[in-house]
Amino acid sequence: MLPKTGIEMYQQRLFALHKSQIYTHSDYEIDQPNYQDWLDILKQESDLIKDKIAKKSDSSRLNILLGDSLSMWFPNSLLPSGTFWLNQGISGDTTSGILKRLDIFAKNNPNNIYILAGINDLKRQVPVAEILENHQKILDYLQYNYPDTRILVQSIFPTQLPTETLTFSIPNSLIKQLNQNLAQQVNDRGSIYLDFHQRFTNTQGNLRSELTTDGLHLSPEGYKVWQFALKQTESRLSKNRDHNYQKWLQKSSELPLDGQSYSWVSYQVKPGDTLEKITLKALGREDFDYCDLIAIRNNLTSDFLLIDDRIEIPQLIQK
Q: Tens digits of per-residue pLDDT, 280-312?
């Protein structure tokens, strides 16, 4: 495979050196990696991150992204901070494929495992019942082998197919049906189901155009939506802000926080405002844990705010 960019050239020369060869005299033809190549890389990364965590003096946290190309292409720069992340996504993988490779990260002790799988099954017209059965087996394996780990199953994202790039179709009605069954299955097993589906939909229930590159895969903006969802999940789990707390916060007249009390007041979004800036102005902190209080109150699923929109923000009650 001939390099087309400077980065590809650099990577191929590094790879040749890794094989103890000089690029100009290398007899190793670099081709597209196959499934086994990806398994080998994931195994090496898993072993390496275990060693890195073992060398840390503090109790470092580890999260795993487990899935297909949607997970594989998650930008490193957008992964929520404060924890190690191990990306175990392989392009084109299915629930049956994932089920067969769960032992790759067996040496690790993750805090959370985020699963997103099933869209390639639907592409291959695998019956919903079979997809659910595979998900059940994945859950059973992970719950048995990682009893202290949170298993979080994410809803399958919507599509906008067919397109000029991808000519096949995956009906969103079928995705919705699978998600409904998956939610029931996950909740019955005592794991956590994350319903991110609607964060990506337009009014017709399709994947929003600005969030996708081809009707199936996510654009940079799409990954920002997913990032925000993961940040909210991580924050709410760490702060024990469960569904009951969220319902209370959305209706409460006051917010007790850090030994002080705040009331909720209406605020009109101004040009240049972001959720972080508004939180800093209201609470004197811009940590996401504080930002999410305003997000919960206003049912925000994105940090994108429209100018002139009205939201409620905390205001310190003077004593």
A: 999 999 999 999 999 999 999 988 899 999 999
As a dihedral over the C-alpha atoms of residue 210, residue 212, residue 213, residue 216, rounded to 10 degrees, the angle is -150
Quick: pLDDT tens for 157-205.
999 999 888 999 999 999 999 999 999 999 999 999 999 999 999 999 9
**Residue 211: φ, ψ to 5°:** -100, 5
> Could you tell me the CA-to-CA distances from 281 to 186, 311, 319 in Å, in that order?
40, 14, 19
Q: Which domains does the chain have, with CATH numbers?
A: 1-31 (no CATH), 34-238 (3.40.50.1110), 251-316 (3.10.350)
Query: What pLDDT was estimated at residue 17?
Result: 80
Between CA 111 and CA 108 the distance in angstroms is: 10
What is the spatial distance between Cα 41 and Cα 46, in angstroms, rounded to a whole number? 8
Are β-strands 150-154 and 112-116 bridged in parallel, bridged antiparallel, or unpaired?
parallel
DSSP letters for 93-156: --HHHHHTTGGGGTT---SEEEEE--HHHHHTT--HHHHHHHHHHHHHHHHHH-TTSEEEEEPP
Measured CA to CA, the distance from residue 219 to residue 169 in angstroms comes to: 19
What's residue 26's pLDDT?
Answer: 67
Mean pLDDT for the chain overall: 93
Q: What is the C-alpha separation between 66 and 30, in angstroms, rounded?
A: 27
pLDDT surpasses 90 at 94: yes
- Going by their DSSP bridges, the two strands 84-89 and 62-67 should be labelled as parallel
Q: Which two tokens stand for residue 291?
A: 């930002």
How far apart CA 274 and CA 70 sit, in angstroms, is 27
Q: Which two tokens stand for residue 237?
A: 């789990």
Contact 53, 107 (CB under 8 A): no
